[in-house]
Amino acid sequence: MRRCHDEWRVTRAGQPTHHKVEQAIKCLASHGVEFNTLTVVSQSNMLHPQRVYAYLKSIGSRYMQFIPLVERAANKDGMLAHPQDEQTAVTPWSVDGLQFGKFLNAIFDIWIREDIGDIGIQLFEQTLAAWCGLPPQVCVFAPVCGSAFAMEMNGDVYNCDHFVYPQYKLGNINDTPLRQMNNSAQNQQFGLDKSRTMAQECHTCPWQFACYGGCPKHRFLPSACGPMKQNYLCAGYQCFFSHTAPMMKAMKTLYVNNLSPAEIRSVFFK
Predict the structure, then answer these.
(1) Active-site residue 161, yes or no?
(2) Average pLDDT score over residue span 223-252
(3) Where are the annotated coiled coils located (predicted)?
(4) Distance in angstroms (rounded) separating the CA atoms of residues 126 and 78
(5) Which of 7, 38, 166, 168 gives the lowest tally of CB atoms within 10 Å of its CB?
(6) Residue 207, CB-side half-sphere exposure with 13 Å CA sphere
(7) Are the CB atoms for 61 and 121 separated by under 8 Å?
(8) Percent helix, strand, coil in the chain (nearest 5)?
(9) In sequence order, what are the beta bridge partners of 64?
């Protein structure tokens, strides 16, 4: 995993940082401090889910997030592409949409047999929550975008860290109270637009309850059913949701009977 990490995570001088991260983790562990790992899934590691998961377990990670890298190429002026600009290509180092789902499936199959109850993986737990009818804790899979603002060092506040563009600026924290920005018509409309701009395919998708079209930033693929764009990761999400459905259904049954979903290990994988 050192090579995958150091390919992208370097110092300002271009030097590798993997060893520094491991040193920091050992320091935290020596003081009994829990930590969460955020793993970016890209072209570099998307074909190695088992190795990635084994490595994360080996360094003591017990709380994991897997974040798909979906980056759009900058235009000729060097400006980042607007999220809904369908004319801009995805960068070569971005994860393939379907492969992201396969990556998740491979890790899920290990986790459900060996680690559920001991290791928390955000996307898996969020999916189970959706099956159980619980409120989404991750804005990506909520029907309405949450107020997960982004604030620049000068105090400028934007609707979301995926939408730091002039048209999504809500104000400046030095001039406008955060509560006022949160309650503003612009912010309310931004949240509601998540459902309003879902592709037509989403409305008939069996996994809408768990996905709600995903993050609007990733909706830039043309739809065959209308003007609203499809999510770049749609194929991967469908692959993941369909693959995990039998186990999710079984864990839901345990949950509604006041049993821990982790009991599935003793029920199915003795």
Answers:
(1) yes
(2) 96
(3) none
(4) 36
(5) 166
(6) 19
(7) no
(8) 45, 10, 45
(9) 37, 121
Within 13 A of 74's CA, how many CA atoms are on the CB side? 5
Q: Which of 96, 109, 161, 193 is catalytic?
A: 161
Q: How far apart are CA 67 and CA 100, in angstroms?
A: 9
Domains and CATH numbers, the chain: 36-268 (3.20.20.70)
Closest to 222 measured CA to CA, from 87, 118, 121, 126: 87
**157 beta partners:** 151, 171
Tell the residue number behind the tokens 């060092």, with chain if given.
153
Q: Are 262 and 121 in contact (CB under 8 A)?
A: no
- In angstroms, the CA 247 to CA 262 distance is 11
Phi and psi torsions of 243, nearest 5°: -65, -40
The CA distance from 139 to 146, in Å, is: 6
Indicate the pLDDT class of residue 1, thresholds 50, 70 and 90.
confident
Instruction: Give the SS3 label for residue 45.
Output: coil
Summarize pLDDT for 109-155 with one digit per residue, the tens. Answer: 999 999 999 999 999 999 999 999 999 989 999 999 977 899 999 99
100-120 as b/e: b if 16+ CB within 10 A? bbbbbbbbbeebbeebbeebb
Tokens at 196, concatenated: 């309003």
CA dihedral defined by 105, 107, 110, 113, rounded to 10 degrees? -70
In the block, tokens 């949240």 appear at: 191
